[in-house]
Design a protein that fits this description.
CATH class of one domain: Alpha Beta
Organism: Pseudobutyrivibrio xylanivorans
Keywords: Coiled coil, Membrane, Signal, Transmembrane, Transmembrane helix
Number of helices: 8
Distance between the termini: 181 Å
Order of helices and strands: HHEHEEHEHHEHH
Protein name: DUF4349 domain-containing protein
Strand order of the largest sheet: 2-3-5-1-4
Number of strands: 5
Helix content: 55-70%
Radius of gyration: 48 Å
CATH architecture of one domain: 2-Layer Sandwich
Oligomer: single chain
Strand content: 15-25%
Structural class: alpha+beta
Shape: elongated
Length: 319
């Protein structure tokens, strides 16, 4: 019985000793880890955490609009409206009306971006096309004034609000500027050539994005500051009559178009004959000369016919 008690006591002592060693080992391990962390921080190895923080900051900079909490202070938040219109004009006084339109463009502070003209004054079928840029503040006044030139046959206006796009470009530019400043700081702290080259590559990429968004912002500014107006002036003998779109009017228009087409065909046919006449006359003269020469030499078809007829008559007489 005593032996069993002694054995149980020894087992209990052994178990308690093992648990005590384990706790001591855990304490030593945690203590060494704490010491290692403290040493790393003191030696400056915590720069890795700083670099990770910098990368996180740069990622947040790349998508500022997604956070929904972007500071809009310093942004241009005014309404950005782009006006685009297209106008068709018929004119009986082509030269005068073209000059009037040019004068209206100039007097309203605009300019002609492009222009083209087709047709001939001789036939009265000239067309002139302008693409004009008009200051937004003068757009309404210009549209009212140009409506009195000639006879306006068509008018189309498009109004586009690009305020959100404009603010987005500003936000991206601001974020990219912040990112550029951060990269410049990292560039100054770079210790190896490899780090420097990597940072310079990222700087070049950010610079490209800044230039791209800056160019886009200039385009938006130009579209907002100057409205685009396309104007077509067509020379006509009579103005097109505006009528109701009824079945009878369509029938009358079809009959008129048919008669007009037939008359145009006859005119073109006569004109073609006039063009062909000199060449046809030359061909007739050449044929006449050839026939005259062949007849004189006895080779003409009429001479051969008469000769053959005489031979037949002579043969009949002999019989």
């Amino acid at each position: 019985m005593k032996k069993r008690l002694i054995l149980l006591a020894l087992i209990a002592i052994l178990i308690l000793s093992t648990m005590g060693c384990g706790s001591s080992a855990d304490y030593d391990s945690s203590g060494s880890n704490a010491f290692y962390t403290k040493d790393v921080a003191e030696e400056g190895w915590a720069d890795t955490a700083t670099a990770d923080t910098g990368i996180a900051e740069e990622k947040s900079v790349e998508a500022p609009a997604e956070s929904g909490q972007e500071d809009l202070e310093g942004y241009d938040l005014s309404r950005k409206i782009v006006y685009t219109s297209n106008i068709g004009i018929e004119s009986k006084k082509f030269d005068e009306d073209v000059a009037n339109v040019k004068g209206l463009i100039s007097s309203n502070g605009g300019y002609i971006q492009s222009s083209s003209q087709y047709g001939s004054a001789e036939y009265g079928n000239r067309d002139c096309h302008f693409t004009a840029r008009i200051p937004a503040k003068s757009y309404d006044a210009f549209m009212t004034a140009v409506g009195s030139v000639g006879s306006m046959t068509s008018k189309y206006e498009d109004v586009q609000d690009i305020t959100s796009e404009y603010v987005d470009v500003q936000a991206r530019l601001k974020s990219l500027d912040t990112k550029m400043e951060r990269l410049r700081e990292l560039e100054a702290k770079a210790e190896t050539v490899e780090e420097l080259l990597q940072i310079e590559d990222r700087i070049n990429d950010v610079q490209y994005q800044i230039e791209s968004y800056t160019a886009q912002k200039r385009v938006y500014d130009d579209q907002v500051d100057y409205s685009t107006v396309d104007i077509t002036i067509e020379e006509v003998a009579t103005f097109t009559e505006v009528k109701a779109d009824t079945a009878w009017n369509r029938f009358v228009d079809a009959a008129k178009d048919s008669c007009s087409g037939f008359i145009t065909f006859l005119q073109d046919f006569v004109i073609a004959l006039i063009y062909i006449f000199p060449y046809a006359l030359i061909i007739v003269v050449i044929i006449f000369i050839i026939a005259f020469i062949r007849r004189k030499k006895g080779k003409g078809p009429l001479f051969k016919y008469k000769k053959k007829k005489k031979e037949q008559e002579a043969t009949n007489t002999e019989k």
